[in-house]
Structures are given as structure tokens and as C-alpha cells.
Design goal:
binds fe (ii) ion, metal-binding, Jelly Rolls, five-stranded antiparallel sheet, 22 strands, alpha+beta, Recoverin, domain 1, transmembrane helix, binds 2-oxoglutaric acid, 34% helix
Length: 485
């Protein structure tokens, strides 16, 4: 390299200084070629052609990108507002909708949001898993009062019925031998039934919804004289001594207390569409602003559910919505789906929970595994909100007017509903003093985009049933038109 570099250097030095011709001779030679008129004309022609080419190129680039934009906006119906000359090829509701998801940033982060024109609310991030926010003062004291009074006027019903008649018949119809049942219940296939395996049995044979602690099960074992050797395990021999509906009959005889149900509360539903009380319509509009979702999605969701817990009331930890399996239908789009499937679940993308009063004692909303999957890590039954609320990762104290809201599903990464968020597990801790009033606004969205679109198409063809009309009141299980309250 050193050699090459010095050779170059040498070559340059030689040509610059080499006295090959006298300087004046070289000058006259340049003058005759560069400064001649014809040379000037040629240079100018080239210069102009060059400028014209550049301008033409700029025009070309400008026009071709404009056309590309126009054709792109025709292809993507979500952005085709500027294309009046060509009607959208799909109906309006089928446009690609991208669901807004509010960012949590970090726990404790506060965002200022405008939910009522001219006012500002503070929205605090409570957890990222699930994505959970708290908004103090979401409802005024007057609004809380009106909602509670409307619910009372309409009448509240028991949220969960006691063990039902007919369950006995169900157990009798079971066409399986004790060995077959034992084998099915023996989840870990170790030839014995552990307490939790029997717990599943009890849920099967009684109405689903009785909450049993290990102590309750021991009591049932003792009552039925089932666990002869008293080791908390049922062998096949011990199991065979029990009749199919032994557990259920025992529960019926002994009587199940309300505190032993999955939930112990009363509730009702309040219609929020056109013609509803102004306060209810205002709340719906505010929820739409809060969630930044298309108003149609909020309009077509379940009515407002108002819940009252008496002293001693609770709701064990649960998910408001079900997991996503291809064969599962959402309750709200079930009628519009072309398939019939035995599996049906609530598809509640968002829960907005309003506290209508401040509770004197207990009644917190617990999120047992928020932000930290401690669920499997200890042997405490974190689902049990009567006993283990204090072990939950996060508890929200009920304060009049405050709203909390969270996403029950993750995003699919393409602007639509994805997998169920297992961290969204939550429940109502036992009310130790006074009563507790809450309201739930669930926003129903089918994780299957096409099914949601078909449902919206169906509803838009029946405009008189719009606004909570073709609604999915889980208590009724068939579409009804809410004309009351
Ligand atoms: O009462 C609470 O704090 C929670 C209520 C709840 O989870 C529900 O109604 O689904
Ligand atoms: Fe819930």
C-alpha cells in the first residue's frame, strides 16, 4: 500500500510539474476549444435538455404517487372517505375497523381525559396485565343515585339461583357406570380421587355454582361416610359406595347457604338506548368517549347491569368473558352465526365497572393475579374472595362515582380482539359492613371479525331493534326488545 500510494503521489507530481509544453501554448489550445461559440451553444443545449428532464421527472413522480394514494384508499375501505366517485364495494359495517386500545404506559401513570365537554378527568393505570384503569369522579353523586333508584324501581333478582330441582333428574339420566365416572374424574389418573377432583364432581352433580372449601368437602365425606380411611382421598371402592347423586342429595338435605354460592348478590339490567333515562344515555356516551371505540359497538352491547350486595355478599374470582376457541360462539352474535355450536360464551372485550356507593367495610374488587402470575405459586385458593382477598395482588376500594375499566382480551396485533387475558381474573370481596352497589357496562365484541360484521349487518337491517334492542340479556337467553326502563 505504501508503494502504491507513493507511486500515485509521484505520478501526480510528475504531470503537474512536467514541462512538456510551454504554459502559453497550453492556454491558447484551451481557448480555441472551450471558448468557441459552437462549444458554448452545445453546452447550453445540453443544460436546457437536462433541466427539462429534471422537471419532467419531478412531474412524473408527483402524479404517479398521487394515483397510488388514490388506489390505496379505494382498496382500504377504512380510509375511503375521500373517494366519492366510487361507492365502497362492501357495506359500511364491513369496513376494516381497528379497535383503539388505550395505552397504560406504566402502573401509576395518569392521563388526563375529556369525557364530558369542558371537563377533564384523571385516568390512572392500575395494572398492565390486565390493562386496567381507574377514573375517580366518572359519575356524579346524582347520577349514582339515579342509577340505584332506577334499579330499585325495576326490581333486582337473585344473581344466582340455589340448587335447582331437576338436577336430581339429570344425575339419574347419566348413563355411565361408577367405574367410568371414577375414571373420568380421576384427572391425574393416579387411581384415587383427590379433594379437588371430587370438587369437580360436586360441581357436576349439583348446579354449577356452589363454592366448596376443602373443609366443606371433608364435611360432606364425613356426612356420606365416604372416606372410610379418612385420608382425604377416595379410592374406587369408596367411590362405588356413593350413588350418582349422593353429593347433590347431601347438599340438598343439609341446605346450601347463599354464602356458599359462587356469587351472592342481586342484580337487574337497565336499557340505555333511545328513550332511556337521560342519565343512562349520558353514561353510555361517556363510556364511548372513554373507550374510544366505534359508537355502534357500544350501542349494540349488553344493557347496564346494576348489582347490589348485602352485608356478607361476595363474588368469587371469575372472568367476565370466555376463552376463544374456533368452535365457541359468542352469545351476542350467536343468532347471526351460520353455524350451530354447543359452546357459547360471553364475549366482553371491555368491562367498565362503576362504584355507585362507597362501602363501609370490605367489598373491594380483587384482581388476584394482576401484573404477576402468582396464581400457581402458592396453595392458597386465590379464587376464594371470602377468605383470600387480602392475598390478591391488587384490590380496588369501592368509592362512589369511581369507574374502573379493563380489557378482558388481548389485541390480536392487527387491531382486533385476540386471546383472552388470563390476568383479567377478578372478583368482589365479601362486604363486611353496609351494602355495596356497582354497575357493569360490558362492551361485546366477537373475536371473529366476520361474525361481528354479520351480526351488525343483521341488526342494521332491523333498525327498530337497534340500541340494546337485539340484546343479549344473559338472564333471558334469547333476543328480546327491552322496552322497559
Ligand atoms: O363487585 C365487584 O367488585 C366485581 C363485580 C364483578 O366482577 C361482576 O359483576 O362481574
Ligand atoms: Fe366480573
Amino acid at each position: 500500500l505504501g508503494h502504491q500510494r507513493s507511486a500515485l503521489h509521484n505520478r501526480h507530481t510528475v504531470s503537474a510539474t512536467s514541462p512538456l509544453r510551454p504554459p502559453c501554448e497550453r492556454l491558447s489550445c484551451h481557448k480555441s476549444s472551450v471558448c468557441s461559440r459552437s462549444y458554448f451553444v452545445v453546452v447550453m443545449v445540453f443544460f436546457h435538455v437536462y433541466i427539462i428532464n429534471v422537471i419532467a421527472l419531478l412531474f412524473y413522480v408527483h402524479y404517479s404517487s398521487g394515483q397510488e394514494d388514490a388506489s390505496r384508499s379505494r382498496d382500504a375501505p377504512a380510509t375511503n372517505h375521500q373517494c366519492p366517485e366510487r361507492p365502497p364495494s362492501k357495506p359500511e359495517f364491513l369496513r376494516e375497523v381497528s379497535l383503539t386500545r388505550i395505552e397504560g404506559i406504566r402502573v401509576g401513570h395518569v392521563q388526563r381525559v375529556s369525557l364530558i365537554p369542558g371537563t377533564v378527568h384523571e385516568m390512572r393505570t392500575l395494572s398492565l396485565k390486565p390493562l386496567l384503569f381507574e377514573i375517580p369522579g366518572f359519575l356524579s353523586a346524582d347520577e349514582c343515585r339515579v342509577v340505584m333508584q332506577l334499579a330499585q324501581l325495576k326490581g333486582l333478582m337473585e344473581s344466582q339461583l340455589m340448587v335447582q330441582d331437576g338436577q336430581e333428574e339429570l344425575a339419574k339420566e347419566l348413563n355411565l357406570s361408577p367405574e367410568e365416572i371414577f375414571n373420568l374424574l380421576d384427572i391425574n389418573q393416579d387411581g384415587q380421587l383427590q379433594l379437588h377432583e371430587v370438587y369437580v364432581t360436586v360441581l357436576w352433580f349439583s348446579s354449577d355454582g356452589i363454592w366448596l372449601t376443602p373443609e366443606n368437602l371433608r364435611e360432606i365425606y364425613a356426612g356420606l361416610k365416604a372416606d372410610k380411611d379418612g385420608n382425604d382421598l377416595l379410592s374406587l371402592e369408596e367411590f362405588k359406595l356413593l350413588s350418582n347423586d349422593a353429593f347433590q342429595r347431601f347438599l340438598l338435605q343439609r341446605g346450601v347457604k347463599r354464602s356458599q354460592l359462587v356469587r351472592n348478590s342481586r342484580h337487574t339490567w337497565l336499557y340505555q338506548g333511545k328513550g332511556a333515562h337521560q342519565v343512562l344515555q349520558d353514561i353510555k356516551a361517556r363510556v364511548t368517549r372513554l373507550t374510544r371505540l366505534p359508537p355502534t359497538l357500544v350501542d349494540l352491547s349488553e344493557p347496564l347491569q346494576v348489582v347490589r350486595y348485602e352485608e356478607g355478599g361476595h363474588y368469587h374470582a371469575h372472568h367476565d368473558s370466555g376463552p376463544v376457541y374456533p368452535e365457541t360462539a359468542c352469545t351476542h352474535t350467536r343468532l347471526a352465526a351460520n353455524t350451530s355450536t354447543p359452546f357459547e360464551t360471553s364475549c366482553r372485550y371491555i368491562t367498565v365497572l362503576f362504584y355507585l356507593n362507597s362501602v363501609e367495610g370490605g367489598g373491594e374488587t380483587a384482581f388476584p393475579v394482576a401484573d404477576n402470575r402468582t396464581y400457581d405459586e402458592n396453595d392458597v385458593d386465590l379464587l376464594d374472595t371470602r377468605r383470600n382477598c387480602d392475598r390478591s395482588n391488587l384490590r380496588v376500594k369501592p368509592t362512589k362515582g369511581t369507574a374502573v375499566f379493563w380489557y378482558n382480551y388481548l389485541s390480536d396485533g392487527r387491531g382486533w380482539v385476540g386471546e383472552q387475558d388470563e390476568y383479567a381474573l377478578h372478583g368482589g370481596c365479601v362486604v363486611t359492613l353496609g351494602t355495596k352497589w356497582v354497575a357493569n357496562k360490558w362492551i361485546n365484541i366477537d373475536p371473529d371479525y366476520q361474525r361481528q360484521a354479520r351480526y351488525q349487518q343483521l341488526v342494521s337491517q332491523h333498525p327498530e331493534e337497534d340500541d340494546d334492542g337485539l340484546t343479549l340479556n344473559p338472564d333471558i337467553q334469547s333476543p328480546t326488545i327491552h322496552q322497559d326502563l
